[in-house]
Each structure stands twice: as C-alpha cells, then as structure tokens.
Amino acid sequence: MSTTTYTDVKIGIIGGSGLYALDNLQVLGEVYPLTPWGHPSDKITICQTKEGTKVAFLPRHGKGHALTPSEVPARANIAALKHLGVRAIVAFSAVGSLREELVPGQFVLPTQIFDRTKGIRPSSFFEDGIVGHVGFADPFHEPLAELIADHADALVDSRVHRNRTLVCMEGPAFSTRAESHFYRMANCDVINMSVIPEAKLAREAEIAYQMVCMVTDYDCWRPHEAAVDVTTVMGTMEGNKNNAKRLCEAFFPDLERAVNTAQFRGKDFFAGVEGAAKIA
Ligand code: ADE
Asked: What is the ipTM of this complex?
C-alpha cells in the first residue's frame, strides 16, 4: 500500500460488474482510506495516463465482486474520492435494455434516473444536525456527458446512445416480467442496481458525475425469450470491457483540461463536516 498522500487526483473512475481494473494505465499506488462512513468498496488504485493525468480507479463491488448493490458503501466511496481531489466521476455500470434498439454490447449515457430502490441504502451525507437539500432534477453532469460522447469513435463495433432514462432497482434478484413491462410503460430505457445512491452522493459532494451504461442483456420483457441471468451479464461485459478502457483512454486528455475549468469546480464539501479529519 502506498504511503504517499494524494490530493490532486481530479478524475475518478468507478468500475461496475466486469470492470475491475484499468490495466492499460501505469499504477502509481493504492490507497484504502478510512472515512467517517467507513472504508470504500476496495483499495483505490491511483494510475497515470501516458499524458501524465492522474486517475483514481475504484471497483464498486470490490475486486472479487464481494458486495451486492445494496451493500456497496457508497458514502465511503464518494467521500474517499472527494478527499483525493476528484472533481469528475465517470461511473461504469452493466445495464439491462428495455428497448429493442439498445443492443447488448452498446453504451448508453442516461440523462434521467427513476429510483426504484427500497430506501434501505444510506443515500445522503446530510444527517445528525447537518441539513442540506441539493437539486437533483438533472442528476447527471451534461458537460461531462458531452465530453464522453465526443469520444464515442474510440469504441470498436459499438456505439453510444444519449438522452435515455435509467431505472435503478434494489436487487439482488432481477425483475419479474411484470416489473420489466411496467418500467417500459414508465418510459424507462435501461435498468441497473447501482446508480442510486452514488449519483445523489456525488451531487451532494459537488463532484461532476456521469454514468456510462454498458448494455449486457434485454432483461425479461421480450416475449418467448430467456430472462436475464448473471452468466449473460458477465459474458457480455467480458467482451466489452476493453471498449470501456479504450473510451477512457480517449477522453482522459480532454477531461484533464475540463476539470480545471469552473464548470467542474465544486466547493470544499468537507470543510464544514465534522469528522472529515478522520479521513486518512
Ligand atoms: N444489470 C445488468 N443487467 C441488469 C438487469 N437486467 N436488471 C438489473 N440490473 C442489471
């Protein structure tokens, strides 16, 4: 484990199912900070691109996929990234498709979230006398989405769809067919178990946040077709993780420039939060 203290790592990448490392980058070290909300999902790898950009990589479910979506310590994850200096998070996630045209292997940059988690995940930093109500009407960071989409040509045999709605369910069991049809009726386009509370916490911490959805399956709404299972999800992700890494490599130089502009500069969130000193 690195003894170096990093405070200038402005880009954070959260890897979802099947994306457990950015092994195309040079590794500088690893950190595993104790935040007031506990440890993050796993060690955070501090990497460097060939242009010299520092990037923090965190596998959401741990490297061995040891955490269910309901167990992910999202507050510790976001607090740890904030403490490293992160201003923009690009969060990858496997998703099921609720639309014929969103084909497994393709990418989606959603603009909206429909929260169908069950209220059992701690989803705010504000409690114990610290009260805050952030705006969440537009849960993702439009300039960040734009910047990622500009590099879609880095993908091999794939494409990026934009302006879609992501429904987040509790899991860990997948949806019933009735639920899958209901989400389609509610104009949802893709489904996962991970964007909530991560996106809300990033907003509270004033970190620009965009989820990059990787379509792995058609959930279970298509008639006469086998329902989604874990083997299908992991199989598609295995084929597509190199595309995710290629996309990152392509947008890193532009993102490095962008995070230094006012559009990406949040306030010092932890300045007034009691216990912040415990982050080591
Ligand atoms: N992640 C990947 N595919 C999914 C699906 N069909 N439902 C929920 N989460 C998913």
From this structure: 0.99
